[in-house]
Amino acid sequence: MATNRTETWLRKLKENGYRLTASRKAVMEVITSSQFVLSPLQVYELARKRYQKLGLVTVYRTIDKLVELNLIQRVHQPSGCQGFVPASMGHQHLLICTECGIVSYFSGENESINPLVKNVENSSGYSIKSHWFQLFGICSDCQIPQKTDSTI
Amino acid sequence: MATNRTETWLRKLKENGYRLTASRKAVMEVITSSQFVLSPLQVYELARKRYQKLGLVTVYRTIDKLVELNLIQRVHQPSGCQGFVPASMGHQHLLICTECGIVSYFSGENESINPLVKNVENSSGYSIKSHWFQLFGICSDCQIPQKTDSTI
DNA sequence: TTTTATGCAAAGTATTTGCACGGGA
DNA sequence: TCCCGTGCAAATACTTTGCATAAAA
Fold first, then answer.
1. Is A129 inside any structural domain?
2. Does A106 touch chain B (CB under 8 A)?
3. What's this model's pTM, rounded to 2 decimal places?
4. CATH number, domain at B47?
5. Least CA distance to B118: which residue of chain A?
6. CA distance B94 to A57
7. What is the average pLDDT score of chain A?
8. Last residue of one domain, picked from the residues B87, B102, B120
9. Is residue B1 part of a domain?
10. Do residue B68 and residue B4 come from a single domain?
């Protein structure tokens, strides 16, 4: 079942002259509907449940396109950076649970980050183009000892 | 020539029961004396100028040890995360020039980041364990059009 | 002398490319 | 029909492991 987000994505693909194929649909639906960081291999395994003939290579190629269209983003973590999540709308930052891997977004530009960036810009002489800000922690569900595992 | 930092590193290696070898010295001196993010392969190439017999495998193994001893840290960038720089003392953040790759450090905890982290912690219910904050921009040297390239 | 560290070769992973076929538009 | 997209196989990184030798302590 395609979510609203998938619809949007499919439209955006079309707008950019890409074809709508079963493979792409399967890959998009998997990433769209996941709250967790997924590696290409995980995407492949999950998407094959929706479209048996899918190949891993196509997953890589589709991921490239989705990144290019700014529909998904690569997530960097201490454990590696081969994971992807849907791109947040506007500029948002990631909050990642190191227990279950669930990802949420937050923003905090004006109040805190922008002034700091300005400070650094002034004192360093750099022209600052972008920033990364990510938080790692334990989500409320994972703080309850009994419930540590998760499904995608 | 060994810098002061290299001396410190060699001492720390010794303290932790590791042997001081020509290979390790070469690797450490290269990373210590570079202002730039270096990949294992780059470290290998540079360190071989100091110690011809060095093997790439030893570079990987030495990097592991240096990370473990908290003497170097992995740097995450949009282009990938196989680079390393000396670990900053205390908790600092990275400012990376996307033109020449030079890395510098800044701090900005109390004034801005801590309150934001607290906010997110309260509103999300997460127990936040760590954060990443990195800035990307163009350093003052690279802002002068004539001088864009760099050497390591 | 003892034991760690090294370098080489080989084995794993992860990702990309070449190419003929299949399926969207 | 036309041509993009696909899957397979192979190629290419990148990194780790096994093992006999070299070298630090």
1. yes
2. yes
3. 0.88
4. 1.10.10.10
5. A135
6. 34
7. 90
8. B87
9. yes
10. yes
Q: List Cα–Cα distances, B58 to B21, B22, B26, B62, B65, in angstroms.
A: 11, 11, 11, 6, 10
* Cα A127 from Cα A152, distance rounded (Å): 41
In the structure, what pLDDT confidence band is assigned to residue B102 with cuts at 50, 70 and 90? very high
Q: B56, B71, B87 — which closes off a domain? A: B87
Distance from CA of B58 to the nearest CA of A (A): 21
H helices of B33-77, where? 40-48, 56-68
Q: Whole-angstrom distance between the N-terminal and C-terminal Cα of chain B?
A: 16
Q: Quick one: A70 and A92 in the same domain?
A: no
- Tens of pLDDT along A75-116? 999 888 999 999 987 888 999 999 899 999 998 777 788 889
Q: How many domains does chain A have?
A: 2
Q: Do B126 and A111 touch (CB under 8 A)?
A: no
- The reply to whether B108 touches chain A by the CB within 8 Å rule is yes
Query: Does A145 reside within a domain?
Result: no
Q: Which of B90, B101, B18 is nearest to B58 (CA)?
A: B18
* CA of residue B59 to C1' of nucleotide D13, angstroms: 17
Contact B113, A123 (CB under 8 A): no
**Cβ separation of B132 and A76 shorter than 8 Å?**
yes
Q: Say what angle helices A40-48 and A22-32 make with each other, to 10 degrees.
A: 110
Cβ atoms B150, B101 nearer than 8 A: yes
Question: What does the alpha-carbon distance between residue B33 and residue A152 come to, in Å, rounded to a whole number?
Answer: 45
Question: Collapsing DSSP states into helix, strand and coil, what is residue B147?
Answer: coil
Measured between beta carbons, the chain B residues lying within 8 angstroms of A119 are: 108
**Neighbouring residues of B130: CB distance < 8 A, sequence distance ≥ 6:** A135, A136, A137
Contact check, Cβ <8 Å, B135/A120: yes
Rg for chain B, CA atoms, rounded: 18
Full residue range of the structural domain in which residue A83 is found: 1-87
